[in-house]
Amino acid sequence: MTKNTDTVFHPQTTWLDPAQKQLTDYPQLMRELSQQQIVMLGEYHDRYDIHRWQLQVCSGLLAHRQDIAVGFEMFPRRLQPVLDAWIAGEMDEPLFLEKAEWGTVWGFDSALYMPIFRFCREAGVPMLALNCHRPLVTRVGKEGWDAVPVEERDGLTPAKDATMAYREYLFAITNGGPPWMKDKSAASPEFDRFVRAQQVWDRAFACNIANALYDNKAGLIIGIIGQGHLEYGHGTPFQLRDLGIEKQAVLLTCDKPLDEAKLVQNYAKAVYRLPQNFTPAPSQA
């Protein structure tokens, strides 16, 4: 059930439906989400409190269905055998991080993510590598998809062209990207390279999620993905729809009540307001 509010009241540790501008019940939300094919959990990569929240949602969804998998932006597809070996209990944590090339392919403190990795291993939940080879991002950004032979695309299909709304979103959150773009606009041809590169990641996550669903690796995939790839239905959700995946939802977090621009239908399915009490550093967790 939902709780009617005269104003947009969003206390800490509660969930808000931004489209309805109402608080929403957590158990009901989990039941609804369990019927999706993909639930994407946005993050700022260095926020331990957000990763705790992601773990909470993973646990909540596992309580509703057992055929879940968790996909991670952090790992390129070539490292899938390492993730499989970790889940199978074939390596300890230091060896897992070494074989996963953590310091090279990601680099954020591994303690931010280890609780989720441990959860997957202990619960027998498959982990999926959602990313692509980093050089592909650079090459497509510079040369475009047509310049890259099919066999060198890391299993990806070309991204559906970005909408102007997505270009404007990316321009706003990056201040135009490179400093020399500040006097340009989202429509400027000079911005194309940045947009193409961003869309390689969007498409990689979408393709690898779709492939896992089509291969019956899971009935529901939880995506651990940066927030900038998810807000307003742009990015990965847009590419998933292009691939025919309609049963999808995005969950995000906030530190304070949402401003009016985010209280819209396509911002996210629901937004969790994080508690502002003391958050231990990863090394203390």
| Form type | globular
The secondary structure category is alpha/beta
Report Rg.
Answer: 19 Å
Give the overall average pLDDT: 93
CATH architecture annotation name: 3-Layer(aba) Sandwich
Largest sheet: 9 strands, mixed
> Would you state the CATH class?
Alpha Beta
Order of secondary-structure elements: EEEHEHEHHHHEHHHEHEE
What is the CATH T-level topology?
A: Rossmann fold
Arrangement of strands in the largest sheet: 1-3-2-9-8-4-7-5-6
Low-confidence stretches: 1-6
Number of domains: 1
N- to C-terminal distance: 34 Å
Count the strands? 9
Helix percent reads: 25-40%
Task: Tell me the strand percentage band.
Answer: 15-25%
Contiguous helical run count: 10
Could you characterize the architecture of this molecule?
- It comes from Pseudochrobactrum asaccharolyticum.
- It holds the Pfam family Cofac_haem_bdg.
- This is Putative iron-regulated protein.
- InterPro entries: Cofac_haem-bd_dom.
- Residues 29-240 form the Haem-binding uptake Tiki superfamily ChaN domain.
- By secondary structure, the protein is of the alpha/beta class.
- It has one domain: Rossmann fold (3-Layer(aba) Sandwich).
- It is 36% helix and 16% strand.
- It contains 10 helices and 9 strands.
- The protein has helices at residues 26-33, 48-62, 80-87, 93-99, 102-105, 114-123, 134-143, 164-174, 192-214, 235-242, and strands spanning 2-3, 15-17, 22-24, 38-43, 68-76, 127-131, 220-226, 248-254, 270-273.
- It has a 9-stranded mixed beta sheet with strand order 1-3-2-9-8-4-7-5-6, with helices on both faces.
- β2 and β3 (22-24) form a beta hairpin.
- α7 packs across α9 and α9 crosses α10 (235-242).
- The two termini are 34 Å apart.
- Mean pLDDT is 93; it is low at 1-6.
